[in-house]
Amino acid sequence: MGCNTVSPEEKAKQKADSIRLHYALLPEAEKRQFFKELVKGPEQFEQGKHLRFEDFFKLYYPYDSSALKNYGKFLAEACYRANEELINPKKLNKKQWFRMMVQPTFESPFTITLEKQEDGYYTLTYSQVEDQTTFSYNSEYIDTTECVAFFSMLNKKNFLSIKSDNPGCGFLHPIVFICEEITNGKYNKVDVALPWINKCASNNEYYIIMDFLKLLRESKVYPEVKKANPPDNADWDNSYELIEKIINTPRDTTKE
């Protein structure tokens, strides 16, 4: 009988495992509702009332810690707030997919995603984190030839083998571009700061980012982006103004 006795430590572990399993099995919509209610930014954090994002993720997604590690807690939270998928490099599918998140210092981050669908068409999606709980999306089927050409270009520039070191380039508030690709079960993430500056990004990284922004600009999604972010001549560029400025900025300028 003594051999079958569960120690207090084991009982505590079993209870903790049971709680984690309960939260892990909740529907995704419920997890996100808990996230909105329980997770606050550092300036709003009150011990005992709210969870930090990394604690929330470990509790509600206990078997996907590699996804959190892949991004780091701040980028992972930004992706989650935008309702974006967190990629676990150890659990890849066979989809063809490219995503770029742009993180301005003083404006809301936004993402652009291109994904091949089962019917062979491609979907382009724009997503923006407007505030802690609000997201906006626009998507469409776009020209298949252009999408095939884009992924062919990624292959020629060997994107899946680029090593990222996330340079700050000596600037105080660099605009950061996080680019990710999945093709045939292979994945890579490349972080680039201020790609139009030669010392901050390679030529390949620069042209990949420019080609992807132009793909968005030429799509039916872009008028919706402009509508949601009209030029306002404020001190800081909104996403539409930023995209326009990036595309029209000459390579190798030293201005941020």
Any descriptors?
256 residues; alpha+beta; 6-stranded antiparallel sheet
Q: Strands across the major sheet, in which order?
A: 4-3-2-1-5-6
Q: What amount of the residues lies in strands?
A: 15-25%
Helix content class? 25-40%
- What is the number of E strands? 6
Give the termini separation: 72 Å
Largest sheet: 6 strands, antiparallel
Structural class: alpha+beta
Number of helices: 9
Radius of gyration: 21 Å
Q: Average pLDDT, to the nearest integer?
A: 83
Low-pLDDT runs: none
Shape designation: globular
Name the helix and strand elements from N-terminus to C-terminus, one letter apiece.
HHHHHEEEEHEEHHH
Describe the structure.
By secondary structure, the chain is an alpha+beta fold. It is built from nine helices and six strands; from the N terminus they run αααααββββαββααα. Strands 4-3-2-1-5-6 form a six-stranded antiparallel sheet. Strand 5 and strand 6 form a beta hairpin. Helix 4 crosses helix 5. It is globular and about 75 Å long. It starts with 7 loop residues before the first helix and ends in an 8-residue tail after the last helix. The mean pLDDT is 83.
